[in-house]
Amino acid sequence: MKFLIDLQHPAHLHFFRNLILRLMGEGHEVVVTGRDKDILRELSRTVGFQVAFFGVARKGVLNLATEFIYRQWHLFKVVRNFEPDVMMAIAGTYISIVGKLMRIPTYVFYDTEHATLSNLLSYPFARCIYVPKCYKNEIRWNHIRYNGYHELAYLHPKYFTPDKSVLEKIGLNTGEVFSIVRFVGWGAAHDIGLTGFTHANKLRAIEELSRYGRVLISCEGDLPDELEEYRLHLDVSRIHSLMAFSSLIFGESATMCSEGAVLGVPGIYVDPIGRGYTDEQERDYGLVFNFTNEQQDEAISKGVEILSSFQREEWQARGKRLVEEKIDVGEMLYRVAMERPFA
């Protein structure tokens, strides 16, 4: 069979990585297309994937509209030449219309409820949409809800074992308490009109968390000069190993907080709107703690509370229960790709 998988974000490569390797290992033809966003080029080189890039992610409604047309046209040409049997993507903003017009089964996976525009450009045209059971919105089009999270496609113990050597690379000792802080760029289509931590609270958060151990900042774009010394310098393919040994994930990334939850690491997530999956990870597992922009002070206080009484075994036990109660999302992806039903 022939498959086309479109990547819009670095996290999408993680999501599909094991599926791509499995399909190629079985002798199927796989074409991977990509949008030039953040570290996706660097990550694809690191993992050894050939990705056909077209379209550059830029901020602003006009730039997003221009990119949408540009990528549609290029994808149309790739699809016409390759003639895939199945197409897959997270969000599916760029492939769903092409798939509908060319009568190619297109499967979309998503977990972000407030991405209203991209969902309208994708959901009505996909063969089927797959969302976690905790997805908060109703979907009018053909869809399936599954008992899992995107992050279980690549961080499930079946696929991932953290590498302790990453600690030596960063200058940390085994068991040492440290935090990973994530500030995002707020440039995605679903981020238009939204903002995150204030400058003052970025400084205060780092100051407070630093009282309990090292703080490493992962950031899209520039950091305040006062925080540049905390910037994380690490091969992008090793971030999940570092996260697995961390004590706290703090900041504006729902994905990184959910990754932490799957790895048994507590997370503080600050966002104006929130996500259904981080809500569930707080309600059912006590692994992610959600705060609005108006609650930034409370978020910092919660981070301090976690670090001041940190018990790694307790958090890991919560993560183990989460994994045991969810499905193997990597296996689900394979069955969808092969157009087979899954339990």
Q: Provide the CATH top-level class of the largest domain.
A: Alpha Beta
**What average pLDDT do the residues reach?**
91
CATH topology tier name of the largest domain: Rossmann fold
Q: How many helix segments?
A: 13
Helix content: 25-40%
Please name the fourth-level CATH homologous superfamily of the largest domain. Glycogen Phosphorylase B
Assigned CATH architecture of the largest domain:
3-Layer(aba) Sandwich
What percent of residues are in strands?
Answer: 15-25%
Outline:
globular
Q: Please give the number of β-strands.
A: 12
C-alpha termini separation: 23 Å
Number of domain units: 2
Largest sheet: 7 strands, parallel
* Low-confidence segments: 186-194
Order of helices and strands: EHEHEHEHEHEEHEHEHEHEHEHHH
Helical/strand content category: alpha/beta
Biggest sheet strand line-up: 3-2-1-4-5-6-7
Q: Using only CA atoms, what is the Rg?
A: 20 Å
Give an overview of the whole structure.
The strands form two sheets. A seven-stranded parallel sheet has the order 3-2-1-4-5-6-7, sandwiched between helices. Strands 9-8-10-11-12 form a five-stranded parallel sheet, with helices on both faces. Helix 9 (254-262) links the parallel strand 10 (248-251) and strand 11. It is built from 13 helices and twelve strands. Helix 1 (10-25) packs across helix 13. It is an alpha/beta fold and 343 residues long.
What does the secondary structure layout of this molecule look like, with pairings?
Elements: E1 2-7, H1 10-25, E2 29-36, H2 40-47, E3 51-56, H3 61-82, E4 86-90, H4 96-101, E5 106-109, H5 116-120, E6 128-132, E7 143-146, H6 165-170, E8 178-183, H7 199-209, E9 214-219, H8 239-244, E10 248-251, H9 254-262, E11 267-270, H10 276-283, E12 288-291, H11 296-308, H12 312-325, H13 329-337
Parallel strand pairs: 1-2, 1-4, 2-3, 4-5, 5-6, 6-7, 8-9, 8-10, 10-11, 11-12
